């Protein structure tokens, strides 16, 4: 398949319904490989990925980690793959930036890696949804995540129930977000 980057960017959308069809390990590796190549502050590469395909663990995630009063993410149960995107918190550039500038560089690094991951998945015809609302404590226990590591987001991955077409979600027009030379 030869799709342009522009087409991939336009087609990526949050997919919340998936076919009951496993995703090949080789494709998952290709997708995580795209994230691996992302830039990061001082090349610290704080990302770690826990790919969950085991049905039992996945069910426990949807029941206990994504289910709750402020957690309207039970739709994730249809996804054949859930990826926990974790950050190693001990890197000096991140700690320094956080202390000196109150900038959370590790979140920037992880965000870039996530976008590379979801764009690669889109290129391969797979659907994704980034999930920021989840119970991190329960997830930590379930996936055996050490205390020095924080899960920043979960990503659902799978073959979309509806084919991927151009994202129709309303986005702010360029004139509202692009300023030349000075903020207006
Ligand atoms: C950091 C972040 C957290 C998100 N958390 C959730 C979530 O918890 N549940 C959900 O259904 N979608 C979540 N989303 C998906 C957004 O709702 C979605 O990206 C947004 O509505 C724009 O739609 P689009 O992705 O189709 O362009 C999240 C997206 C981002 C980037």
Overview of this protein structure:
The protein is an alpha+beta fold and 184 residues long. The chain has a domain of 120 residues: NADH Oxidase (3-Layer(aba) Sandwich). It is built from 7 helices and 6 strands, in the order H-H-E-H-E-E-E-H-H-E-H-E-H. The protein has a 4-stranded antiparallel beta sheet with strand order 1-4-6-5, sandwiched between helices. A hairpin with a 2-residue loop joins strand 2 and strand 3. Helix 1 crosses helix 5 and helix 3 packs antiparallel against helix 6. The model has no long low-confidence stretch (mean pLDDT 93). It binds flavin mononucleotide (FMN). The site of flavin mononucleotide has 10 residues, from strand 5.
Poorly predicted parts:
none
Output the CATH topology of the domain at 24-81 and 91-127 and 136-160.
Answer: NADH Oxidase
C-alpha-based Rg, rounded: 17 Å
**N- to C-terminal distance:** 42 Å
Strand order of the largest sheet: 1-4-6-5
Compute the average pLDDT. Answer: 93
How is the biggest beta sheet arranged? 4 strands, antiparallel
CATH architecture assignment name of the domain at 24-81 and 91-127 and 136-160: 3-Layer(aba) Sandwich
Q: What is the CATH first-level class name of the domain at 24-81 and 91-127 and 136-160?
A: Alpha Beta
The proportion of residues in beta strands is 15-25%
The gross shape turns out to be globular
Say which CATH homologous superfamily of the domain at 24-81 and 91-127 and 136-160 is assigned. Answer: NADH Oxidase
Element pattern in H and E: HHEHEEEHHEHEH
The ligands found in this model are: flavin mononucleotide
């Amino acid at each position: 398949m030869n799709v342009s980057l522009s087409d991939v960017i336009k087609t990526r959308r949050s997919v919340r319904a998936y076919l009951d069809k496993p995703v090949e390990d080789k494709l998952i590796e290709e997708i995580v490989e795209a994230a691996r190549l992302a830039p990061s502050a001082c090349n610290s590469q704080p990302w770690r990925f826990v790919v969950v395909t085991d049905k039992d663990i996945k069910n426990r995630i949807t029941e206990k980690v994504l289910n709750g009063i402020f957690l309207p993410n039970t739709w994730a149960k249809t996804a054949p793959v859930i990826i926990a995107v974790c950050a190693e918190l001990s890197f000096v550039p991140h700690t320094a930036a956080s202390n000196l500038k109150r900038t959370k560089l590790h979140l920037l690094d992880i965000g870039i890696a996530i976008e590379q991951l979801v764009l690669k998945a889109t290129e391969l015809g797979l659907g994704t949804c980034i999930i920021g609302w989840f119970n991190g404590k329960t997830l930590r226990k379930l996936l055996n995540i050490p205390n020095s590591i924080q899960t920043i987001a979960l990503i659902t991955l799978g073959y979309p129930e509806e084919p991927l077409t151009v994202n129709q979600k309303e986005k702010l027009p360029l004139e509202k977000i692009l300023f030349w030379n000075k903020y207006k």
